[in-house]
């Protein structure tokens, strides 16, 4: 983000891990995460809407074919795992997959140059000290974003538990599973069911965050290696082309991780909703 005379390698990594934040403590907001989450969401809506708007009755071609293949693939995934009414689950699964995929794709962008652009805007437009301009663009590398999405899944799990079993059925299962209806065992059943319920969104959030956060750190270390060769000058041509060359192999591998993590999040969401809806 700045020259080596101003930031050490440790300060460089620490600076890159800071968010554009307003507020304090629990009530703070990461504005960069919110901004790029909205950008990804609007981009997803625009692309899917364009594919649906241009649909024809004949043989699909080009972008329409891509959208139809994606929708059909998600619908088949829902059919295989969810055996209740799929009118809402299918769109939910499609939204989760595409939105998380867009989040993850942002990790391929060079780790320095969008934050550098934010520094220039903050300095020249708002008169801010560039060292205090923080900007991260990968929502899935922010635990707040992944937890926010997983909490939405938790709400859906509870809603589909009531929808599939009814209030009485869900209460009975919650109180008697897995050890039975003995009144002495009910407290243990409640504790285990609460742990099981909370573990689902927790695993979703931490898995997605851990993979993308680690990938972002590796891109930072690759950028540091290239900047070391150029005297720790992030703006130099040697630094730019060095980062591109050294990051290419990791990027090619990371291309596999990007859709895989979106697929895992979507698939587990479908499975969790199916388990919530069905009687056991």
Question: What brief labels describe this structure?
Answer:
mainly alpha; 280 residues; disordered N terminus; two-stranded antiparallel sheet; single chain
Describe what this molecule looks like in 3D:
With 280 residues, the protein is an all-alpha fold. It has one domain. Helices cover 71% and strands 1% of the residues. It has a two-stranded antiparallel sheet. Strand 1 and strand 2 (29-30) form a beta hairpin.
Amino-to-carboxy terminus distance: 55 Å
Structural class estimated from helices and strands = mainly alpha
Strand content: under 5%
Count all strands and give the number: 2
Tell me roughly what share of residues is in helical segments: over 70%
Instruction: State the major sheet.
Output: 2 strands, antiparallel
What value does the Rg take, in angstroms? 23 Å
**Average of pLDDT:** 86
Query: Helical element count?
Result: 8
List the uncertain runs: 1-5
Quick rundown:
The protein is an all-alpha fold and 280 residues long. The protein has helices at residues 9-16, 31-53, 62-81, 89-105, 113-124, 143-176, 186-229, 237-277, and strands at 21-22, 29-30. The radius of gyration is 23 Å and the shape is globular.
Could you outline the blueprint of secondary structure elements for this entry?
Elements (H helix, E strand, L loop, with lengths): L8 H8 L4 E2 L6 E2 H23 L8 H20 L7 H17 L7 H12 L18 H34 L9 H44 L7 H41 L3
Helix pairs in contact: 2-3, 2-4, 3-4, 4-8, 6-7, 6-8, 7-8
């Amino acid at each position: 983000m700045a020259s080596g005379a101003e930031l050490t390698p440790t300060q460089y990594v620490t600076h890159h891990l800071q968010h554009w934040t307003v507020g304090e403590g629990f009530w703070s907001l990461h504005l960069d995460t919110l901004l790029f989450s909205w950008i990804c969401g609007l981009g997803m809506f625009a692309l899917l809407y364009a594919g649906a708007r241009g649909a024809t009755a004949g043989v699909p071609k080009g972008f329409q074919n891509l959208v139809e293949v994606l929708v059909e693939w998600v619908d088949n995934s829902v059919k295989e795992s969810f055996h209740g009414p799929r009118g809402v689950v299918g769109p939910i699964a499609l939204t989760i997959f595409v939105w998380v995929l867009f989040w993850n794709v942002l990790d391929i962008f060079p780790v320095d140059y969008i934050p550098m652009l934010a520094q220039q805007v903050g300095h020249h437009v708002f008169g801010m000290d560039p060292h205090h301009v923080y900007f991260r663009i990968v929502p899935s590398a922010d635990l707040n974003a992944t937890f926010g999405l997983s909490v939405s899944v938790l709400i859906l799990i509870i809603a589909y538990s009531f929808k599939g079993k009814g209030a009485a059925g869900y209460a009975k299962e919650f109180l008697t599973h897995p050890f039975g209806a003995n009144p002495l065992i009910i407290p243990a059943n409640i504790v285990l069911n609460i742990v099981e319920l909370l573990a689902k969104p927790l695993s979703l959030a931490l898995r997605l965050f851990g993979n993308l956060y680690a990938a972002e750190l590796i891109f930072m270390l690759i950028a540091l290696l290239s900047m070391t060769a150029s005297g720790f000058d992030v703006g130099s041509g040697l630094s730019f082309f060095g980062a591109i060359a050294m990051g290419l192999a990791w990027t090619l591998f990371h291309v596999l991780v990007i859709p895989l993590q979106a697929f895992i999040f979507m698939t587990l969401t479908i499975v969790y909703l199916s388990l919530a809806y069905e009687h056991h």
